[in-house]
Amino acid sequence: MNIELEFVARLILGFILSGFVGLEREVSLKPAGLRTHILVGLSSTLLTILSIDAFPGSDPARVAAAIIIGMGFVGAGTILKTGERVIGLTTAATLWTVVSIGVAIGVGYYLLAIVVTALGVLVLKLSIFERPHR
């Protein structure tokens, strides 16, 4: 397969897998929904691809670390404490998960990304077993 076509395939997979997580958040009426998760997944996939291919001789791990640090700031911005309640923690975790999916796809670990997506969506569906917040 042409290398550029492979990169496009990676981006499409990043779009799809991030979309699964984002769709669950959208259906659950969470603030960071479908579009946010797709954009985060796409950008982490692209940045990872570029770190490996566009800058020969550089250290792709540095870009991956920067992606993770950046998402830490974004995730922190989604967490709010109101009185006794903390909200947005799961949203931050889903964005963190989507970044890891994007990085995995960017380096070519497709099966790993698919498994993490499936497990992540499953975990989000486990909310039916949680007790209601007071």
Notes on the structure:
The chain is mainly α and 134 residues long. Strands 1-2 form a two-stranded antiparallel ribbon. It has one domain. It has helices at residues 3-27, 34-53, 60-78, 89-107, 110-125, and strands spanning 80-82, 85-87. 31% of the residues are buried. 74% of the residues lie in helices and 4% in strands. It contains 5 helices and 2 strands; from the N terminus they run H-H-H-E-E-H-H. Strand 1 (80-82) and strand 2 (85-87) form a beta hairpin. The mean pLDDT is 92.
Tell me the number of strands: 2
* Helix coverage percent: over 70%
Supply the number of structural domains. Answer: 1
On the 0 to 100 scale, the average pLDDT is 92
What is the overall silhouette?
Answer: globular
Structural classification: mainly alpha
Regarding quaternary structure, what we see is: single chain
H/I helix tally = 5
Query: What low-confidence regions span 5 or more consecutive residues with pLDDT below 50?
Result: none
First-last Cα distance: 54 Å
- If you compute it from the alpha carbons, what radius of gyration comes out, rounded to the nearest whole angstrom? 16 Å
Q: Order of strands across the biggest sheet?
A: 1-2
H/E order of the elements?
A: HHHEEHH
Strand count, sense and barrel status of the largest sheet are:
2 strands, antiparallel
Task: Kindly list the characteristics that best describe this protein.
single chain, 134 residues, mainly alpha, two-stranded antiparallel sheet, 5 helices, 74% helix, 4% strand, globular
